[in-house]
Amino acid sequence: MADLYISEETADDIEMAAVDAVLDGRFVVVRESERLIRAGTSARHGHRHLLLPALHALQNAKGWISPGGLNYVCETLQVPPAEAYGVATFYDLFRVEEPMQFGDVTHVCVDAACQIAGAADRIAELKAQGLNVHESPCLGQCERANDVTGEVAVFVQSVGGPDSVAADDTPYELFHQKGDESLRLLKRIGVVDPTSLDSYLAHCGYESLTAAIEMGAEAVCTAVADSGLSGRGGAAFPTGIKWRAVAAEQGCPKHVVANCDESEPGTFKDRVVMENDPFAVIEALTIAGFATGAENGWIYIRGEYPLATARLQNAIDQALDAGLLGDDAAGSGHRFHIEIRRGAGAYICGEETALFASLEGFRGEPRSKPPFPTTHGLFQEPTAINNPETLLNVLDIVQIGADGYRSRGSERSPGTKLLCLSGRVAKPGVYEVEFGTTLGEVLELAGGLTGSGELNAVLMGGAAGSFVDRRYLDMPITLEDARERGTTLGSGVVMAFTDEIDLVDVLVRISQFFSDESCGQCVPCRVGCVRQNETMVVLQEKGSLTSERRQLVNDIAQVMVDASICGFGHTATNAINSAIKLGLVPGVPS
Amino acid sequence: MTDDPTSVVTVSLTIDGQAVEVPEGTSIHKACKSAGIDTPTLCWAENLTPVNVCRVCVVEVEGQRALVPSCARPAEEGMVVETDSERVKHSRKMVLEFLGSGVDLDQAPELQKWMDHYGSDTSRYDQYELPALRMGETPKIQDNLYIRDYDRCVLCYKCVEACGDDAQHTYAIAVSGRGFDARISTEFDVTLPDSACVYCGNCIGVCPTGAIQFKTEYDLRQEDDWRPEDQDVTRTVCSYCGVGCNLELHTQDDKIVKVTSPADHSVTSGMLCIKGRFGWQYVQPVDAPTRKA
Ligand SMILES: Cc1cc2nc3c(=O)[nH]c(=O)nc-3n(C[C@H](O)[C@H](O)[C@H](O)COP(=O)(O)O)c2cc1C
Ligand code: SF4
Ligand code: SF4
Ligand code: SF4
Ligand code: FES
Ligand code: FES
Hints:
The structure holds two protein chains of two kinds. Chain A has helices at residues 13-24, 40-48, 51-62, 67-77, 81-88, 112-115, 119-128, 197-202, 207-215, 217-227, 239-248, 269-276, 278-292, 306-321, 352-359, 373-376, 388-406, 439-445, 479-484, 503-517, 523-542, 547-563, 567-571, 574-581, and strands spanning 105-109, 133-136, 154-157, 164-165, 255-260, 296-301, 337-342, 383-386, 416-423, 429-434, 455-460, 466-468, 493-498. Chain A is α/β, with parallel strands linked by helices. In chain A, a hairpin with a 6-residue loop joins β3 (154-157) and β4. Chain B has two domains: 9-124, Ubiquitin-like (UB roll) (Roll), CATH 3.10.20.740; 140-283, Alpha-Beta Plaits. In chain B, α2 crosses α3. Chains A and B meet through α5, α20, α21 and α22 of A and α2 and β7 of B. Bound molecules: flavin mononucleotide, iron/sulfur cluster (3 copies) and FE2/S2 (inorganic) cluster (2 copies).
């Protein structure tokens, strides 16, 4: 493999310096220092996980990935150029053609919350100002979408400098439960200084890690299992079972991963936590490492979250300096380091096995399960992967015990849940509610509806979730009630639509989202998403569907649910089919 | 329990109501075969690692929510498998229909046969002014050895595997892009002579749809003169070196029109190098490609 064929194009000094800076830096902490890197295949695999950071460096240096720049990365990391090109072209934030317009790219969200707040008009305005505008899927800032002011979510991808989001220089004011005594997960939001370890310590920070170390790893796993905590990333898998499985694996490196890819349209809870209470995520991930016996912690965060990334990196640096991470993390005798990896614009990389592939430097294509991550996860090694909200719950569980934790919520859905309220509600934002609160109460909490219309539909759980209508206002927000009534809590999205909004436009956009974001690996989803989108476009144009097309909608959904590889294909038809079933789509018989 | 180290552990399962016993580790697909049940496959091949992406081989396994790819999933003790349930038939029909709606399957008779079997109707997607999105590629003809016509590509990953880890270790081609825009490509889509390609032609050998084919075959097809029924296949041994690769020379009108190697041959597993695949210029001269200086 030493004889990779690399063409003659060479990198310029700027590109080389950018790549070198990444490869020499802190990124190698977890993998390289411990691994015997030999020549050939193992060397390639040993370095390959640096491909994504290297591509980011090239993109940022020049605004695109040039053939010479790619060659330099390929030569350094011993990655075949065709494969590296395949990786680069997988992500929205990378360009492989020299841009017509040099400089910043302004990504403007066109997904539902922003769509109904007037994204199209905003884009026209920004373009008129001469900006290089790129239409983006949900940017995880849905609480900023405001149909009165016309504000929508924006992310600026920079050349030469740091990327930025609107909030980078304004204090966060869209949290409406600040100071509420009953909060468990969000108690520090808006109260703690997110850039200071001292401030975090002054607000009970690291008391949970101390408690966990006192309890011992096994007792932590037991408490998590007994608490009934289930995953908040969408699949609601019991966290205790996952942790115990990883803890039981012996004799090889193990990993814990915080899945901070948060790209489900309508979801922004993880961002709010990471931006405003980053030390909590670091502390919780450290407990996960301690409990499962994993030495390697990873944070995979979506590329469009520059502020959260900076705050987390700052938190890691301060924790490391204070000995709360490192070779003897917090005096536990356990070695634990955390590395951050930035995604580059690909919703599918939130799927756990796609995330591993992406982090390892491959295309973010999901892998077949079984085998499961607990035995064959990151680098094919045992891995516990969790959503940051799931991890936050553990901070409380180790302090108040499983029984204390269960004192709130329902028997099968203990604890509290973060919900992302957006759409036509008066006070969009993240809310922490006790499981069992009804949907109607949740909408009231967010100030009720805005605009003059009546409630028509609520999108639950995001684009991969499903629509419900007014009849669901009495539904308690619990896993079991959602399941029983044929909907889902998913990632906690609650997006309200009034009857002034044309739902068909929203469905067209949702189907477009899935066409754009499918990894393309399996036929049912690669083609099915496109055909579903075409059907929705026909519906939009004609106002109704013929019975043949109506049949197609069902046929497409069934093969995607039955035969797709991953959860993306399994859920990509849910929103549309739920809307049709509820009779919310004029022109399409339910 | 037996002490005989050569004894094979077997598993028993039920396929379409029939009891089947196969060695442990056997795929469901092979177990079906041993029970006389034919299963369509597309991305699977005997000589390649299963990628299980096409999903045309799915079967229903009792207790599993989704259908499972039979090519990659090992048979397990006590499994109850259905290969002809409504769900299986629907998925196979739709997968084939989806493929046929986006790419040209004219040169994939095996797939055509299964499409007829399951009643796939690709015209369903084109019934309005809005034509169904297709691959929309034109043939890449960059030298005289082989052509790539990605309008026929079903993205089965076979060529990528053959070029990479499963045989050639050249990594000249990979999947680029995402979703429906995914394409098999060299870096920056450079021409093959400018890529790492060593012209082993192993990608041609594994391609199930004719998306990659000998230039000789392509030219004859263009002239409407490709006549498989008039072709002879002569098995011989490559004369270049001592490895002993078996060649199958396909001749039409006494001219070599393509060269393959049997996938089950113990030396080649169907893979060849440029010499065996294309080195017949001493019989019939062709212009060899050259790399950009
Ligand atoms: C298409 C797709 C996207 C996903 N995106 C995310 C995500 O952004 N964040 C997340 O935590 N989980 C996401 N998941 C779920 C993960 O695969 C995984 O179940 C989760 O990270 C496990 O953590 P948990 O048990 O704490 O929920 C996604 C799943 C699918 C199928
Ligand atoms: S279901 Fe979609 S996203 Fe998942 S593997 Fe298949 S093509 Fe990729
Ligand atoms: S001819 Fe050989 S080296 Fe060239 S692309 Fe095909 S498999 Fe790869
Ligand atoms: S070119 Fe042929 S072998 Fe390669 S992915 Fe396409 S159909 Fe498969
Ligand atoms: S940021 Fe626009 S919908 Fe989420
Ligand atoms: S043949 Fe089994 S998934 Fe393609």
